[in-house]
Amino acid sequence: MAEYRTFTTDDAMRFADEHSGLFGDHSKLSCEEFGDGNLNLVFRVSNDKGTSLIVKQALPYARCVGESWPLTIDRARIEAEVLLKHRKLCPDHTVEVLHYDAEQAAILMEDLKDYRILRTELISGKQFAHLAPQLASYLAQTLYFTSDFALTGPNKKQQVGRFLNPELCLITEDLFFTDPYCNHERNNIHTAINSDAQQLWHDEALQAEVAQLKADFLSKPQALLHGDVHSGSIFINDENCKLIDAEFGFYGPIGFDVGSLVGNLLLNYLGHFGLTADDDTRQQHQDYLQQQISLLWQQFSQQFKQLMETECREPSLQNSRYQQHFLQQIFADALGYAGCELIRRTVGLAHVADLDSISDSDLRAKSERKALQLGRELIIQRRELSNIDQVLTLLRHLK
Ligand code: ADP
Ligand code: MG
């Protein structure tokens, strides 16, 4: 086997050609590297007939920082295996992996060129009625069928071991749960909200709840998570949406994936206070987002409930009171993790364009303060909030 080396465009072309029958004998291939992500190389390999595939290669360091931040290339295995597993469970909404090469830490996958990144679409005010139903179904299928409700004890433990993913989890552990709550050099704070950010460093009640959420992230292997369900990992078009980029996948709390997504929809909602000047247009988009958040939880919880009732193989977990309690706990966890996402995307290392692309500094600060306020409320009140309408009421009453 060839030793690992960073791909050139020629290497990526050869890799794609070797591992797919798509291009044919005499097709002329071209290749460009166009990754805009933080960590990896992403190539598009195309032939002269318009057929194309994506080659994604993990670098032995984080691309956005450079060689001073080494990072295991085993993350390509995690990404490929999570995507393959999720695709089996939810083929419609998971990108197709055609080949994975362990030595080169490279994945060959379908090119979603007929799709666009959800974050960009939501920022420009586009709306998709199928967003929440499809993502609810993705989350219910992938999370239920990798949980203890569906797997036997020994099999589940073997799976947990395969997907430990310590290095990538550590990034989440730091960026989500540690940095925003102290004066960390990695934080990235818009100067206009400096004093609001500093309040987080002294808020012991909030820090205690974040500690609980972090402890659960560390020690609650409920299901095989995607691990990074933000709106930059979702491709969408008028008919469908698909998840990519599962390198943060591991066995963790189900509410983490659900909450990351809810958090990203909320960030878009808050961003539009600064992105959309016209009141009616903004209101209309924000109504759409509220409706999607509501649908997402309703449909996810209904499907998960039905799966527990009809598919559970483990007799002691068939207890309906237990199942009801389990769903309620996913809800509270999801709200807590959504709150963490709001806060870390506002003051932590990795921001989102929903807030950062607000050009007026005062308006941006207003949206950012709302994100911190809502994040705090969701984290602190997550166990008292008993349904999604109460969450939307909190959202509408932000100052
Ligand atoms: P990273 O893990 O480095 O963040 P991503 O998987 O998020 O990398 O990919 C970075 C970018 O590459 C995406 O934002 C998208 O523009 C492009 N990309 C990745 N996978 C695909 C794909 N299957 N089809 C089309 N574009 C893709
Ligand atoms: Mg990415």
Description:
The chain has 399 residues and is α+β, with helices and mostly antiparallel strands. It folds into two domains: 9-110, Phosphorylase Kinase, domain 1 (2-Layer Sandwich), CATH 3.30.200.20; 116-396, Aminoglycoside phosphotransferase (APH), C-terminal lobe (Aminoglycoside 3'-phosphotransferase, Chain: A, domain 2), CATH 3.90.1200.10. Helix content is 52%, strand content 13%. The chain is built from 14 helices and twelve strands. Strands 1-2-3-7-6 form a five-stranded antiparallel beta sheet, with helices on both faces. A three-stranded antiparallel beta sheet has the order 8-10-11. It has a two-stranded antiparallel ribbon with strand order 4-5. Helix 9 (254-275) packs across helix 11 (320-347) and helix 9 (254-275) packs antiparallel against helix 13. Magnesium ion binds at residues 37, 232-233, 245.
